[in-house]
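Deviation from plan, reported transparently: protoporphyrin IX containing FE complex.
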Amino acid sequence: MIRFFKPAVHILCSVPFFLLISDWLNDALTANPIQYLTLTTGKTALILLTLSISVTPIMFLTGKRFLNPARKLLGLYAASYATLHFSVFVGLDYFFDWELIKDAIFEKPYVLVGFSAFTILSLMAITSTKGWKRRLKKKWKPLHRFVYLSAFLVTLHYIWLVKSDIREPLVYGTIMGIFLLLRIPVIKNVITKFKNRNNSAQTAEV
Ligand code: HEM
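Because the crystal trials were delayed, the predicted structure below was used instead.
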């Protein structure tokens, strides 16, 4: 079962990409294909980023260590969909007009925060290899905690985009915030004590 876990993550993360290819081949990219591609790749990147952030707290709560490889894989897929999202913006929306792209980044706050989140995700994807882990030594872990800053920036990006109905971005923001809280040492200690007490109660019952 555990043997199939990594291939299953690869397959599941590739599904949105192949669905987009299928939509393209079947002429089903809607009346506004650029917007459809931007929204789909952006939403997929956000969902995978949220799932990637969920792995460590879920492992802590359930003790299921086999989930560990999913964190990096989901993070890499999130960064890949974010790259597609940015490429659609640069290539299809702005036709590689770098002057206009630069103006959009510095004049539209939602683009600026999206771009900052994208830069952080890309840096983390690049430094996720064993070689970079060895090179950065003790700095690697603190650097990769920036994932929470990118999650916050993506939530802001989404909130600024939707303007009126901010319920959906708030749902993602809250989920990611809860996962972040579960990593705070004081909260972790309280949960560990609670788990230990539960375990000893169960052992006493047996
Ligand atoms: C350079 C970076 C980025 C740019 C220029 C950018 C641009 C855009 C644009 C133009 C839209 C709106 C499309 C529309 O309403 O027509 C959008 C939506 C969105 N973007 Fe980004 N984005 C960037 C980075 C990111 C990143 C890193 C993520 C997630 C990891 C992300 C997630 C989203 C989401 C969730 C939406 C809304 C999807 C929906 O409403 O269903 N974006 N982005």
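The first helix runs from residue 5 to 25. We consider this an acceptable substitute for the interim report.
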